[in-house]
Design brief:
The complex is a heterodimer of chains A (about 160) and B (about 450).
Chain A lengths: L3 E3 L9 H9 L6 H6 L10 E5 L2 E5 L8 H5 L5 E3 L6 E3 L9 H5 L6 E3 L4 E3 L11 H4 L6 E4 L11 H4 L3 E2 L2
Antiparallel strand pairs in A: 1-8, 2-3, 4-5, 6-7, 8-9
Chain B lengths: L1 H6 L2 E7 L3 H13 L5 E5 L11 H5 L15 H4 L2 E5 L3 E5 L4 E4 L4 E9 L3 E3 L12 E3 L3 H10 L5 E5 L3 H12 L3 E6 L11 H13 L3 E4 L3 E6 L7 E6 L4 E3 L2 E4 L3 E3 L15 E2 L11 E3 L4 E5 L4 E3 L4 H15 L12 E6 L2 E7 L9 E8 L4 E8 L2 E8 L5 H9 L8 H4 L11 H8 L5 H6 L4
Parallel strand pairs in B: 1-2, 1-6, 2-3, 6-18, 8-15, 9-10, 9-15, 10-11, 17-19
Antiparallel strand pairs in B: 4-5, 5-6, 7-16, 12-13, 13-14, 19-20, 21-22, 22-25, 23-24, 24-25
Helix pairs in contact in B: 2-8
The chains are: A alpha+beta (about 160), B alpha/beta (about 450).
Chain lengths: ~160, ~450
Amino acid sequence: MRPVYVREEVCMGCGLCEVYCALAHSISQDPIKAFKRERPRPVARIRVERTDGLFLPLQCRHCPDSPCVYACLTGAMYKDPDSGAVAVDPDKCSGCWTCIMVCPCGAITRDADMGIVAKCDLCPGRDVPACVANCPNEALAWAEDGAGVDLTEPAATAGGRTRGW
Amino acid sequence: MAGKKAIVPETEYLIIGNSAGGIAAAEAIREVDREGAIAIVSEEPYLAYSRPLISEHLAGERSLDSMLLRSPDFYERNKIEALLGTGVARVDFDHKLVELEDGRRLAWRKLLLATGGAPIVPKLKGSHRKGVFTFTTLEDAEKIREAVNPQHKAVVIGGGLIGVSLAGALVHRGVAVAMVELMDRVLSTALDAEASHMVEEALRRKQIEIVLGQTVKEIVGRPADGGRVGGVILKDGRTIACDAVVFAIGVAPRTELAAGSTVAVNRGIVVDRHMATSCRGVYACGDAAEAYDFIHKTNRLIPVWPNAVAGGRVAGYNMAGRPTRYEGSTGMNALNCFGLSAVAAGLVEPKGDPTCEVLATSSAANGAYRRIVLRNNRIVGMVFVGDIERSGIVFGLMKDGINVRRFKEAILSPGFGLAALPDDLRRKRLSLPNSQLSEARGNEE
């Protein structure tokens, strides 16, 4: 699986990833229409956490052993057998929030208008997730080949195989 | 045995129970063993469905199709023989045989008892009357749906999670509801007092009448038709007129198949850290079993869905020959009650335990409430109401037994997130390598 990786030293906390994520998940794909008129409102599945001296853009890590999938009460949360991405079926989600309770990264969001959860789906249909493609500072990275970027390696070693690093 | 094999069909793995634990076990077995024959037996005739969704079914918002846990071809795709609509009459643990209620017999090599729980129905005068229900299965939901209409009033006995979700569904159908709870607050095992009161407020806003510290002494008939429910008499003598009564007191583990066998049963079926029972080749999980609780550091009944799945997976791996240890779980509940979100896990109400420290904060502005219970600077309980989105981070810290001394106050702040964790912890959560920056910021534990 290839989650979006964060280079937190480089993030400047601008929040554009949130904007482009919500836009990518809107119906109109038009910023003015999407944010002013669309109901249900488009929801960002990434959030930038801000503390003193640290900006951390955070979205689903697509854990290999996904607590949210195993805790889901309805079968809505599932691991895509082909891509390994963790995805949610909006028709089956009942908004019980059990997945939110067990996500160790706090990466699942409530979609208030829909009454269900929203999470990173790695932007199916796009070459690169919208947050990565639009990060002005290349703080977000996306492994292109998808084959085993070793996260225990120092970033410099992984850099050759990733975009944005 | 050889003679028996010739007559009785044999399955490698037999799973009794077609819900959370049984399905999780079957999937785990298939991860390890692609071919070994699996059979799942259930007295319910349906494909595996989400039991928690029966309240949405009763509310009229969901058909069975959209309640299925897996796609309809799940059994076929995984080469699972589904024996649905027939219960198990008895299990012969010595000869590894089961006899189904329809008379069929089946031999097995590994057995999983994922039999779940049965609703508790206290012996009560008048509980035979027409209009008295329980609420744990799809069939229960359908019976209630057929029996009630918007002119009716229902008495829900029990203010736990089943009672609260049932009351919500009845209100959706336009039925007036009175909830009778023995304790002095609703959700008394799931939440702490403050959070319980927030839920009570949400229920009362929907005109649900909450009667606390009371029990139903007797269910009485109608004046004109004594066979049908006409009301209840409370312990203090008050009466509430109603057209239906639903028991939502809780569930008791279904252990009857193990009775008189070598499978040890305490309150539930006793299992070790591999979900194995005292009988070789026999495993148990879910509401039927007493599995390990990592907060209480002992085995106990925790009848919640995620634990059934976790235990079922471990049982499945072990049945298929991949030794796997159950890491344990604890009581945990999330709820969305008329738009009020709440999450709670572990020891939420330490009741004067001197080894526990309680930190709590509430904000009147946005109705948010947060509470953590600590023991030796490790989180042993948590309650989030309102803003719950980062609660999973806290659950993870609790599960992993992390010392939170350095940042415990930050957990209560509205902006709490992974960024508030020390670098080493945060990077571990994100599976990122430790960077030079984090070294510069220091990694003192």
